[in-house]
Amino acid sequence: EQFVAAALVLLQQEGKLNLDDDVRKYLPELPDYGSKMTIRHLLNHTAGLRDWGAVMALTGVGRGDRVISQEVALDVVFRQKGLDFKPGSEYSYSNSGYQLATLIAERVSKQKLPGFIDERFFKPLGMKNSSWRDDYQRLVPGRAQGYSRQGANAPWRLDMPIMSVYGNGGMLTTVGDWLKWNAMLDSASMGKPLVDALETQGVLNNGRKIEYALGLNVSTYRGMRDVSHGGSTAGYQTFLARYPDQKISVAVLCNGTSPSAGRIAADVTDEIFSPFPQQPTNSAPAATVAPETLQKYVGLWRNERTRYPSRTTFENGKLLLNGRPLTPLPDGSFQYGPSKVSFKLATSGKPDYAEVDTNGDVIRHMFEEAWKPAAKELSALAGVWHSEEAEASFIFVVEDGKAFLTQRPTTKLPLTPLYKDHFSIGGVNAVAWVIRDREGKIVDLHVGGSRMRDMPFTRVK
What we know:
This protein is of the alpha+beta class. It has helices at 2-13, 39-44, 52-57, 70-78, 95-109, 113-125, 175-187, 192-198, 261-273, 291-294, 375-379, and strands at residues 68-69, 131-132, 147-148, 157-158, 163-164, 171-172, 217-221, 224-233, 236-243, 248-254, 299-303, 309-315, 318-321, 324-325, 327-328, 334-336, 339-345, 351-358, 361-368, 383-387, 392-399, 402-407, 411-417, 422-425, 430-436, 442-449, 452-459. A 9-stranded antiparallel beta sheet has the order 14-13-12-11-19-18-17-16-15, with no helix packed on it. A hairpin with a 5-residue loop joins strand 25 (430-436) and strand 26. The longest helix has 15 residues, at 95-109. The model has no long low-confidence stretch (mean pLDDT 95).
């Protein structure tokens, strides 16, 4: 992704585009979503685009199950009629943004991205072992095959990407070549404006700065400035970290799904730099909260953005969120990893909502009563549901009082009731919910998952 971003920065420096241009200036076939979407939004993952891989997975034949070309991936992106959110209002990783960014770079440069990158970056930097997977059947000398397994004791299996998709990923390289790229960024041998542009963090519409810059995450690690990015596809995973102040980089390429490339990179970094000076902690000392107060916060919560469920429980005198402890703070909120959680009670004394604040990103979670639908409520949803945007269909079936979404030939996903008109979809980390009209009549069935929040399905029979 950082190479795609760098290509667009070069084109901006040459006066051929501006990162704050409207995407539709270059891609008029993209639907008008009612708000300006810029090239920078694509590169910051703040455009609100549904991820093409997540959409494709709704068909039951996803990224690892069929051959996918660049044109197929772009076709999925272009036929989406809606966004997950207004451009610039949130951050959410989506490969679709970099597919569009790649296409813009190709249209403006009048050159395919692999050739442009090779000419402008690979050759000048001596990256002789780097190329793009624009043809997944092309023989690449020295290429390592990818492997995966389903558990620590399971056998390894060959796991190769059968995609000719590039831009959002698909770069074939070596540790040595990657370090040449990072050395260029450290020395700014291609110009400091290029480096500065790549490291400029995104800013949301509300003014909040995010860690994601242009194809790079800019953060800190053990007190050091950290510019890095990881990735994975099929049986491959990668992590490239750069510590600009120390001019040290760590590159990890792994042709297996375990161990974690990011974890290896962190271990190598620790070995290089330890011992680290002790960092001041910003966390306040834990407070004491009466058990009867903690028990008021027990229940089921619906994420207002994603509709995903969370559950609070009270066990052994502690309040837990999704099985992990919430630490009471003096201001009445709770520490939960890097986040602060604040519960709000209604005037009745019952839970109303909770707010989860992660570095200024506040997500509201509404308290919900658990739903136990009657057989009649489930049977009312039975039938065939189709999504034009996903080009996918589900059959909603009820068997022995239990609901399932099925697809030919063998897909059968269990639906577990959550709260009114909402189900969790077993095995795919997704949620399904019903949309009703004012009279309570069922209008649509929607499905939301990771990187794709809201896909409407209409009953066809």
